[in-house]
Amino acid sequence: MYLLIQAHQYDRYPDLLDQSFRLRKRIFADQLGWSVSVVGDYERDIYDDLNPAYFMWCDDDALTLYGCVRLMPTTGPTLLYDVFRSTFPNACDLVAPSIWEGTRMCIDDVAISHDMPDLKPERAFCLLLVALCEVAMTNGIDTLVSNYEPHMRRLYRRAGAELEELGRADGYGRLPVCCGAFEVSARILSKMRAALHVTQPLSGYRQSIPEPSTPTRVARLPFVDHRHQLYLESVKVVGTAKGDKPLSQWKQG
Amino acid sequence: MTTEFHSKTLLAASVRISEATELTDALIALQKIYDIDFTTYHLAHTISDIVDTPFVRTTYQDAWVARYLLRGYVRVDPVIQEGLVRQLPFDWREIAVKDSAVRAFMLDARKHGVAQNGFSIPIIDKSRRALLTLNSGVDGPAWTRRITRYRSEWIEVAQLIHRKAVLQLYGTRDPILLLSQRELECLHWAALGNDATGISTILNLSQHTVKTYLKSARYKLGCITLAAATTKARHLRLIHPYGNTPI
User: Fold this and answer.
1) CB contact, 8 Å: B207 with chain A?
2) Cβ contact, residue pair B208, A185, below 8 Å
3) Contact: A143, B178; criterion CB under 8 Å
4) Same domain, yes or no, for B156 and B189?
5) A95 vs B216: CB contact, 8 Å cut-off?
6) Spatial distance between the Cα atoms of A20 and A214, rounded to a whole number of angstroms
7) Which of A228, B39, B109, B181 could share a disulfide with B27, CB 3.0–4.6 Å?
8) Taking CB atoms and an 8 Å cutoff, what residues of chain B touch A98?
């Protein structure tokens, strides 16, 4: 399932947050070699102290983390502006309440291959992107500014995302790091779903998150065929392409 | 000019907020326009002093405000407690009642005239945090419809209220954030009568990107319409559409 965790809920998900900082260290410091601030097993920077929202993909019991991304409004202090200011003073300087910054987006390929052996890492990353697009839309966000390595652009394109590169910075990691603006809209969402053969919303609910002990979600039925049905006893398996394991389960509250 | 949808309510709110002498007048005007019962603006961590004094303006009844202050409810109030750390606007129905103190507070609030439904908008600028709260007595489904309809407008309004509060509190506006080259280019071509499609062709950018630059420019200039933003940019000599904008 997918959770949008804001500062008032940090104390409810200490394990997920702990896993996310460890995962970020493994991905960004160890694998990509980015110059990020590492303390022990954690990759954590000053922006993590500013109460950002974390969008997390985890199992249904909120015990195992599969992926995460950090979200901050561009009206406040943002990492990308600070990082790119030296090389590209004008690159990442978009500021508005509906423009948000998404940073440190990554997936845990080990946890995913353990729990969902049929799901390939590229696809997993793209699914996280779709879920991110969904949650951004429900929260009135129309643009996400994000950083990525140049080769990721192809993956984004294949996933149906549309982005405009705003600038690049060298010397941050082994490869240049790009800064780009992603469109968030119903058009893009349906394009992404089509590209990935996803038929149902992945994240399916607004920012109100059920207690982890009692996951209660009311099944919403996006299928046209099912519109006449008032209830479904229990809907399991959210639409993914054949061969994928279920990403989230829908339980009736 | 880029065609933007701006509702009458948002334009009216913008005019009334800028005309109001006191912030409270702006809040009263705002709740009349949107048919809201009570409005509160809370700016946290103002002038750094020994005591961290928040700046609060509200239209709640005096009796409730007095009771709130006397009982130190700010330490219990989940709207404030969560609102000053949350990033996204939230419906009060999302608040999880954590303990009996919160429950008692909420019952007491209802007893003293605070209406049942609310929507709070966190405002985060480069150095401060604030919260604008709208409180309404309409029933749940009607409130959901209102939020769906006005959400994006209210977010714009929250920014206007915040700017007004900063002006009232510090006696000066925040310096305008530096506009980027792309934002100036987009404003320049918008001032010459191009819409997003035209500008996207001229600058070889996607339409969405052009809209994003214009939105960012509009925010930085503190304007709710593009027309106002281009005019202000000309006044500030940031663009020279009939001369040659040095970009």
Assistant:
1) no
2) yes
3) no
4) no
5) yes
6) 22
7) B39
8) 152, 155, 215
Is B244 a member of any domain?
no
Question: The dihedral of CA A62, A63, A64, A67: what is its sign?
Answer: positive
Non-local (6+) Cβ contacts of A52 within 8 A are A7, A70, A71, A72, B87
Tokens of B68: 């709130």
C-alpha B11/C-alpha B84 separation (Å) is: 28
Distance CA A72, CA A78 (A): 7
- The last residue of one of the domains, among B145, B170, B195, is B170
For testing the chain B interface, which of A93, A103, A141 should be mutated: the one with the most B CBs within 10 Å?
A93
Question: From start to end of chain A, where are the E strands?
Answer: 2-5, 38-39, 42-43, 53-58, 65-73, 99-107, 143-148, 163-169, 177-183
Class of CATH domain A2-226? alpha beta
- Asked, for residue B162, whether it belongs to a domain, the answer is yes
Residues 6 or more apart whose CB falls under 8 angstroms from that of B246 comprise B240
Q: What residue ranges do the domains of chain A occupy?
A: 2-226
Q: Identify the domain boundary among B170, B192, B220.
A: B170
Rounded to whole angstroms, how far apart are CA atoms A82 and A93?
Answer: 9
Are both B59 and B116 inside the same structural domain? yes
3 state DSSP class of A243? coil
Q: Kindly state whether residue B83 falls inside one of the protein's structural domains.
A: yes
CATH number at residue B16: 3.30.450.80
B128 shares a domain with B55: yes
Per-residue pLDDT of chain B (247 residues; tens, 9 = 90+): 334 556 899 999 999 999 999 999 999 999 999 999 999 999 986 544 455 678 899 999 999 999 999 998 988 999 999 999 999 999 999 998 888 999 999 999 999 999 999 999 999 998 889 999 999 999 999 999 999 999 999 999 999 999 999 988 887 777 888 898 899 999 999 999 999 999 999 999 999 999 999 999 999 999 999 999 999 999 999 999 887 665 5
Q: Considering the entire predicted model, what is its pTM?
A: 0.85
Which range marks the domain in which residue B29 is found?
Answer: 8-170
CA distances from B41 to B77, B137, B158, B162 (A): 14, 18, 9, 8
Q: What share of chain B is helix, strand, coil (3-state, %, to 5)?
A: 55, 10, 35
Where residue B230 sits, what CATH number does that domain have? 1.10.10.10
Q: Say yes or no: B156 and B42 in one domain.
A: yes
Element (H, E) at B56: strand B55-58
Q: Give the H/E segment covering residue B118.
A: strand B117-124
Give chain B's domain count. 2
Q: How far is B58 from chain A (nearest CA, A)?
A: 23
